Amino acid sequence: MYERLDELPTRQSDCQTPCHELILQARRGQIISVKETIAAVRRDGPHLAETDCELVEFIVNVAPAFGLFVGFDLRE
Fold first, then answer.
1. Distance between CA atoms of 8 and 76, rounded to whole angstroms?
2. 43 SS3 class
3. How far apart, in whole angstroms, are the C-alpha atoms of residue 23 and residue 28?
């Protein structure tokens, strides 16, 4: 897991922009729903080739750097 923003991977993937936008909309200390975030990314970017697992990995790595918690609710 990354503790600071400057530690985030520099490889830019297509999913990063929509995920970042969703993460930036959340307030510090808020829980980010993996299920809702993936659904929003798929809705806004149906052309994206990343798998759900890759999106989850990105969310898990980035959200804590913004002071957010991750809710693993994919199976609900």
1. 29
2. helix
3. 10
Tokens representing 6?
Answer: 């400057």
3-state secondary structure of 3: coil
For residue 58 the two structure tokens come to: 């990105």
- Rounded CA gap, 42 and 29, in Å? 25
Segment 20-62, tens digit of pLDDT: 888 989 999 999 999 999 999 999 888 888 899 999 999 999 9
pTM: 0.75
Residues 6+ apart with CB under 8 A from 15: 41, 45, 48, 50, 54, 55, 58
The whole-angstrom distance between residue 7's C-alpha and the CA centroid of its chain comes to 16
Instruction: Find all residues with CB under 8 Å of 30, minimum gap 6, and list them.
Output: 68, 69
Tokens read off for 32: 């980010």
